[in-house]
Amino acid sequence: MKNITDSFVFLGQGPSAGSFGFNTDILATNLINLSVVLGVLIFFGKGVLSDLLDNRKQRILSTIRNSEELCGGAVEQLEKARARLQKVEREAEEFREKGYFEIEQEKGNLINAAFQNLEQLENYKNETIQFEQQRAINQVQQRVFQQALQGALGTLNNCLNGELHLRTIGANIGIFRAMKEITD
């Protein structure tokens, strides 16, 4: 430290009586040179440094503005996407509800159609049973009639003699003539 202060004292005294000399103290001369260079750099370089800092500041500010614009655009797109999503969700819910309603309607229609088919089948069954019953009754009646007729013919053949047979035929012919006269 003493060397540094000595060099300033030496500078303050100036050269002695017309002699010019070199200061060989490296620390003292380096410190003076550095202070002179820094002073010159600060004096002349502050404009350049301030321009560089201003340019850097402008680039940072423009980057921030661009980022804010992009962020605003992204937020706007996000809001639009959310709105579209909500719309699509509402439409999907409507389709789902409509689908459930249509399914329930179709289910009811199928159940009604099944009941109608069952009723028709029941009616067909009842008609078939009635038809078969009537057919069976008719067959039984025909057999009973045939058996009764055969029995009556057998009885008549046994009981009738020629004269009774001719009188019966004559009576039947008379009945047929009377019927013919009535119809004419």
TrEMBL record:
In plastids the F-type ATPase is also known as CF(1)CF(0). PANTHER family: ATP SYNTHASE SUBUNIT B, CHLOROPLASTIC. Belongs to the ATPase B chain family. It comes from Cabomba caroliniana (Carolina fanwort). InterPro entries: ATP_synth_b/b'su_bac/chlpt. Residues 71-98 form a coiled coil. The keyword Plastid applies. One of its GO terms (molecular function) is proton-transporting ATP synthase activity, rotational mechanism. One of its GO terms (cellular component) is chloroplast thylakoid membrane. It is found in: Membrane; Plastid, Chloroplast thylakoid membrane. This is ATP synthase subunit b, chloroplastic. F-type ATPases have 2 components, F(1) - the catalytic core - and F(0) - the membrane proton channel. F(1) has five subunits: alpha(3), beta(3), gamma(1), delta(1), epsilon(1). F(0) has four main subunits: a(1), b(1), b'(1) and c(10-14). The alpha and beta chains form an alternating ring which encloses part of the gamma chain. F(1) is attached to F(0) by a central stalk formed by the gamma and epsilon chains, while a peripheral stalk is formed by the delta, b and b' chains. Keywords: ATP synthesis, CF(0), Chloroplast, Coiled coil, Hydrogen ion transport, Ion transport, Membrane, Plastid, Thylakoid, Transmembrane, Transmembrane helix, Transport. F(1)F(0) ATP synthase produces ATP from ADP in the presence of a proton or sodium gradient. F-type ATPases consist of two structural domains, F(1) containing the extramembraneous catalytic core and F(0) containing the membrane proton channel, linked together by a central stalk and a peripheral stalk. During catalysis, ATP synthesis in the catalytic domain of F(1) is coupled via a rotary mechanism of the central stalk subunits to proton translocation. Component of the F(0) channel, it forms part of the peripheral stalk, linking F(1) to F(0). It is a single-pass membrane protein. The chain crosses the membrane at residues 26-49.
